[in-house]
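quick one, 86 residues, struct below
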Amino acid sequence: MDIVYSTKFGREYKKLSKHIKATAEQQEIIFRINPFDQKLKTHKLNGKFNEFLSFSIGYKYRIIFEFSKDKKTAYFHSVGDHDIYQ
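---
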């Protein structure tokens, strides 16, 4: 699966600790194989984010993303703790 990173995602990613970045990279490997692997806890979002999905990076952090229409590309929009939902 191809992944496109938004500039916002890039800015937020740079601010993460090395430990969280390492965990995110491990989760991304799993995501590329199966975006709905149980380890990721992928789920559809509600409210103003109802067109997006999210998966977990450990217990506290999340990546917000969406798929292209053909489901061959994922667009990573945001990364961070639960504050990214605001």
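The two ends are 28 Å apart (CA to CA).
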